[in-house]
Amino acid sequence: MSPFPSPLADARAPHRAGTARAGTGLGLGLDAGGTQTRWALARPDGTQVARGEVGGFSALLLDSGAGRVLLAQTLQSLADAVLAHAAPGALRGLQAGITGLGEPDGPAGRQLRALLAQQLGLSPAQIHCDSDIAQAWHALYRPGEGYLVYAGTGAIAAFIDEDGTLHRAGGRGPLLGDEGSGQWIAREALALVWRREDEHPGAWSASALARHLFDELGGSDWPVTRAFMYGGDNTSRRGAIGRLALAVARAAREDDADALTLLRRAGHELARLPLALARRLGVRPVTASGRVLQLHPAIESGLRAALPQDLPLAVHQPDTALAAARRAALAS
């Protein structure tokens, strides 16, 4: 899923249950984000066999030569890790959720299936690649059940109907949307700080929010912020900007009024996404997920305050890789 890191330690240590024998029909599930790929192996009865993590990848890597080299290296690492626990012929199939994969049956989806098949010894027909948001939705609901709003580096809401059609709101990227996401929080915080600097140079030193942001950036001069926001390639910069939201959360934990107000606004912005789906598709339960929801309670409180009572909200972090592995193990 999203490359946005959790401010909490990940308690889900990799589980190693030994190498499975051929013929046991293992399913492999992937949750691939820009900085980390989580994988899991499961049997048809749902039992987890093994799990782990390798470097991240996204469908966007297919757009450049350097990206394709990195993708090949990451998939090789993935295959080495997975096949250490699955004997030849043991894999029944693969379900993968991949960041940046907008059209699973388009050229990018076909290329990814071919590359994964080559590395894992599967046929492309045994591999189902989908967007990370679709796989996360399947980890929570059955078709027709509810809405997922996911907030990481970006922000999107999704619903899959009884016919298997994906409906979405948001997820338009940093130039056209992603309000309430980690990157939006960071961008809004920096904009506020620099507007104040325009009016009162040096005001940042009295602001916990500004101090935490500038500590993260490594300096309080405008050239430092400018280089961070506008330098480097778009893919890596997007994740790095999103991680600045951690600095906003640290300021909020010190009761900085600006940080708290901004995080509550983020919750209100996230609420707009399931509300848009509800207007189009009817009232259903809502689940909020993603690392942004773990930053500070103000985000969840803002989200709850903006949702009507007939859209009940749960906050849950699905185990997307394991859920995908279980579905792959049951594939015919």
Notes on the structure:
This protein has 332 residues and is α/β, with parallel strands linked by helices. The strands form two sheets. A five-stranded mixed beta sheet has the order 3-2-1-4-5. A five-stranded mixed beta sheet has the order 8-7-6-9-10, sandwiched between helices. The relative contact order is 0.16. It has helices at residues 65-83, 107-120, 132-140, 182-199, 208-217, 222-230, 234-243, 245-253, 257-281, 297-306, 320-329, and strands spanning 26-32, 36-42, 48-55, 91-98, 127-131, 147-151, 155-160, 166-170, 286-289, 313-315. 43% of the residues lie in helices and 17% in strands. It starts with 25 loop residues before the first strand and ends with a helix. It has eleven helices and ten strands. Mean pLDDT is 87; it is low at 1-23.
Number of strands: 10
Q: State the strand order across the main sheet.
A: 3-2-1-4-5
Helix and strand content put the structural class at: alpha/beta
The overall average pLDDT, rounded, is: 87
Principal-axes shape call: globular
Number of helices: 11
Q: Give the ordered list of helices and strands.
A: EEEHEHEHEEEHHHHHHEHEH
Extract low-pLDDT stretches.
1-23
Q: From the alpha-carbon coordinates, what is the Rg to the nearest angstrom?
A: 21 Å
